[in-house]
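Researcher: Here's a chain I'd like modeled. Treat it as a single chain, no partners, no ligands.
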Amino acid sequence: MADPTPIPDALVALDAEYAEILGLLDRSAVVSRLVATVPNLAGVDMAWVGEPDGEDGIVLGKSVNTLSRLVEGLVVPVGVGLGGRVLAARRALWVSNYLTSGDITHHFRRLATMEEMRAMIALTIIHDGRLRVVLYGANFE
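Model: Modeled as a single isolated chain. Structure tokens:
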């Protein structure tokens, strides 16, 4: 008995599955896809990641829904700002107002003001004991 699925549909499905598997092999593509889902899944206005830059910092990038993409390429050292605190603590932290919080340093206040960021959360994604990314989400004013 012949397969009822027309060959073109089967080929399209196979191509889509192949593309998804290839995406999993490309770390940058996986991280980009992850960040793109954050606003809808987490209910935040914007998202971005910090990727490891040696043992003592992260470099921000792959921003979604930011006003100006000012976070792109920003280096965040351990202990500095919310992301730096998360990097040190290796756990999720958040602030209800990034601009006024007394729990974080304010090295990035000017940038947060320009991007109109207020409530912010950041968390680490760790696999096999290694930091993969710090994932951020934030809301506008």
